[in-house]
């Protein structure tokens, strides 16, 4: 009877996605509230459900909800300045040389970029989960997805595990994204873990290319991961204004 009741409770939670303790007490009036709590404890320990305040939720429902949230966050970012990102991707694609080891950063601009890399033999290291999935369609490319903690806003993995992963990997060209840029503060982003990873990748790379739409200009985030002097190419959607053009020439940075 105990196993049968627990099986019924599990089936109910799977069907509904979430159920309250009060509902279960109503559905099983012949057992005490404490017994139902013990049933939920058993199912949670068996990795079938997760207990929440006042009830329980199915793990599969929880996973779907998290994935939908993640898609929504990233989807919103990808829709911003979509045409500008497409223009940047078209300009940057010819900078990828066959036979090279390249790092491709995470972010919505990078997704546009990799959609222009359907052919060619190259080895890719990336911290972008969606970037890796997109590049998996190219049978000639070797794709290495580094490990780390996931940032749902840009589908990026970073942290100590990511740094360790790339420690012994050679990088010919790094294609990087930025959340903001100013001549005074350089290229910036908002996450310390991602800042550490970006800095380390740029230090290892023989050449660095930053892809950034003009909406990021004169925006400064907390962490500066590189300056103009560290960048070989800056790829943008519009021609640079005079001040940026002068600064880039002085730094030896080519703006496309």
Brief rundown of the structure:
The chain has 256 residues and is of the alpha/beta class. It has helices at residues 2-16, 21-27, 33-45, 59-79, 82-92, 108-114, 129-135, 160-165, 192-204, 242-251; strands at residues 18-20, 49-52, 55-58, 101-104, 123-126, 142-145, 149-151, 156-158, 173-177, 180-182, 186-189, 207-211, 223-226, 233-235, 254-255.
Over all CA atoms, what is the radius of gyration? 24 Å
Q: In DSSP terms, counting alpha (H) and pi (I) runs of 4 or more, how many helices?
A: 10
Largest sheet: 7 strands, parallel
| Range of strand content | 15-25%
Strand tally: 15
Mean pLDDT: 86
The low-pLDDT segments are 63-74
Instruction: Kindly state the percentage of residues in helix.
Output: 40-55%
SSE order and pairing:
Layout: H1 2-16, E1 18-20, H2 21-27, H3 33-45, E2 49-52, E3 55-58, H4 59-79, H5 82-92, E4 101-104, H6 108-114, E5 123-126, H7 129-135, E6 142-145, E7 149-151, E8 156-158, H8 160-165, E9 173-177, E10 180-182, E11 186-189, H9 192-204, E12 207-211, E13 223-226, E14 233-235, H10 242-251, E15 254-255
Parallel strand pairs: 4-5, 4-9, 5-6, 9-12, 12-14, 14-15
Antiparallel strand pairs: 1-3, 2-3, 7-8, 10-11, 11-13
Helix pairs in contact: 1-3, 5-6
């Amino acid at each position: 009877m105990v196993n049968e009741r627990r099986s019924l409770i599990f089936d109910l939670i799977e069907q509904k996605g979430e159920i309250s303790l009060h509902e279960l007490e109503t559905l099983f009036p012949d057992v005490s509230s404490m017994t139902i709590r013990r049933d939920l404890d058993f199912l949670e320990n068996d990795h079938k459900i997760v207990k929440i305040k006042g009830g329980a939720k199915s793990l599969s429902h929880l996973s779907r909800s998290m994935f939908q949230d993640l898609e929504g966050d990233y989807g919103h970012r990808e829709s911003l300045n979509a045409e500008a990102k497409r223009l940047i991707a078209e300009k940057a694609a010819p900078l990828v040389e066959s036979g090279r080891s390249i790092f491709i950063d995470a972010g919505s601009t990078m997704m546009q970029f990799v959609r222009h890399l359907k052919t060619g033999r190259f080895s890719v290291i990336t911290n972008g989960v969606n970037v890796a999935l997109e590049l998996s369609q190219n049978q000639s490319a070797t794709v290495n997805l580094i490990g780390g903690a996931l940032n749902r806003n840009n589908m990026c993995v970073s942290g100590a595990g990511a740094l360790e992963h790339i420690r012994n990997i050679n990088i010919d060209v790094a294609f990087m994204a930025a959340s903001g840029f100013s001549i005074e503060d350089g290229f910036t982003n908002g996450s310390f873990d991602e800042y550490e990873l970006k800095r380390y990748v740029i230090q290892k790379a023989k050449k660095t290319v930053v892809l950034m739409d003009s909406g990021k200009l004169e925006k400064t985030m907390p962490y500066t991961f590189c300056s103009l002097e560290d960048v070989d190419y800056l790829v943008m959607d519009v021609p640079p204004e005079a001040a940026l053009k002068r600064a880039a020439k002085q730094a030896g940075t080519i703006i496309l």
